[in-house]
Amino acid sequence: MYQDKKVVFSGVQPSGVLTIGNYLGAIKNFAYFSDAYHCYYCVVDEHAITVRQMPADLRRRTYETLALYIACGLDPEKNTLFVQSHVSAHAELGWILDCYTMFGELSRMTQFKDKSAKNADNINAGLFTYPTLMAADILLYQTELVPVGVDQKQHLELSRDIALRFNQVYGDTFVVPDGYIAKETAKIMSLAEPTKKMSKSDENENAVVRILDPRDTIIRKFKRAVTDSGSEIRAAEDKPGVTNLISIYGAFTGKSVPEVEKEFEGKGYGDFKLAVGEVCADALAPVQAQFARLSADKAYLETVMKQGAEAAAHDAARTMSKVRRKVGFIELKR
Ligand code: TYM
Asked: Of the CATH numbers 1.10.580.10, 3.40.50.300, 1.10.240.10, 3.30.460.10, which one belongs to the domain with range 205-292?
């Protein structure tokens, strides 16, 4: 852990092909921190198995997610990129923190309620304690800042509460983390049901634009995006479809909402949707090209994973040693 730099940590589940929600809400922002902070970006495969995964798919997506991190501009020399299951301290601290997390707190997590409704035949204990493992991810590295989409806000607040509780019982042990939620892209909505979050596990392919979708697919999906009554291109509460498209267009072009509204004044939904598709496809083209190169080089990805895991394990060991001592475990001298 670099003492001279503050720490950023974030993670993405390799549970599906990543969407522009993951990209705009999280990964695109990760690189902003690479110079000023010591950054850990993790592929959280242990979180992914809270929902049943095909093992071969999980393995492939873990490589893919790491390749996407790099393709989205995260330089492995400047960021610690690693896979969660390669650093056993995550599961270990997760267990310890389970003992400092209340049943009632976990019961209130909206994502648990949503996921239990969706996976009624597999409401396992891991799905329930998932937010504690997330707290462990964050607290292990003495993280100051966690860049995420707004759907993770409740989990983040729980991580803070767990850190505060532990610190209160044992004295200062963990840095209490803050979230970094980019306002305009905090929640990219589904293209089919714009009052719902765009989610990588959505069964309706037309609802999600994936980072790796080919150009014509991206344009077709935006052309089909649900818009609202009326014809004005204006952000408003009663126009969730158009508002979402304005956010996406703004995020890819760096334009503010009023700038986008002005640009499309007097134009129709058809022209606007085509323009959104084009800027999205243009922005993703270099990411896709870089991804294609990287994913063909498994040996390179494994080297990155290995180096990342070694660095992360080394840094996590410091926190673990402190935690073990505080809770009363015996540490044997090596
Ligand atoms: P996950 O894998 O669901 O999503 C990865 C990141 O993408 C963000 N995101 C979105 N942002 C804007 N609009 C959307 N439609 C959208 N969909 C997803 C998420 O907010 C997230 O930042 N529990 C986490 C993974 C995790 C984690 C952590 C994150 C595990 N440990 C520690 C931060 C720190 C999750 O399931 O993200």
From this structure: 1.10.240.10
